[in-house]
Amino acid sequence: MKKDKVVILRGARLIALYRFCFLHGKKEIETCATQDHGKNFAKKFIKILERIAFSNAKVKIVDTIDDICQACRKEKTRGCRELIQYGISATAADRGIIHFYGFKVGKTYSAKYILRRLKEKGSCE
Predict the structure, then answer these.
(1) Does residue 53 lie within any of the structural domains?
(2) Full residue range of the structural domain in which residue 20 is found
């Protein structure tokens, strides 16, 4: 990923970003991502979270496939896009999280602004 490239981030990743920055840090997020999706996915996931957390990258918030999804082996079968807990679609979950934090689907924000909003609102779980 080029340093000046806009990071594409789906709504559900905002929870992981909150946990990474304000609760658990790298180790727990990396462990969970590795267990759920494999080492390649976890490595890319952490790299993107670090880029957002430690720079002022531009981040486009979406309710669909993001930059992290590109490393997921499940994407080939659309596993996570079809259905998640309680019969709610992944897209609906993304939109709910985006709404909770006060962002707009398709809009680009600075990483600093996103982190400030996450800290102000807290966890949406």
Answers:
(1) yes
(2) 7-120
- Looking at residue 85, its pLDDT comes to 58
Report which secondary-structure segment, H or E, holds 118.
Answer: helix 111-121
Q: What is the pTM of this model?
A: 0.82
4-48 tens-digit pLDDT: 789 999 998 899 889 888 887 777 777 777 777 778 888 888 899
Residue 63 counted as domain residue:
yes
Contact 95, 72 (CB under 8 A): no
Look up tokens 């985006």; give the residue: 98
For residues 52 and 73, what is the distance between their CA atoms, to the nearest angstrom? 23
Number of domains, the chain: 1
**3-class SS letters over 40-105:** HHHHHHHHHHHHHHHCCCEEEEECCCCCCHHHCHHHHHCHHHHCCHHHCCHHHHHHHHHHHHCCCC
Pairing status of strand 7-10 against strand 108-110: unpaired
- Compute the CA torsion angle 12, 47, 66, 103 (nearest 10 deg): 50
pLDDT in tens, 53-85: 998 899 999 998 888 887 765 555 455 655 555
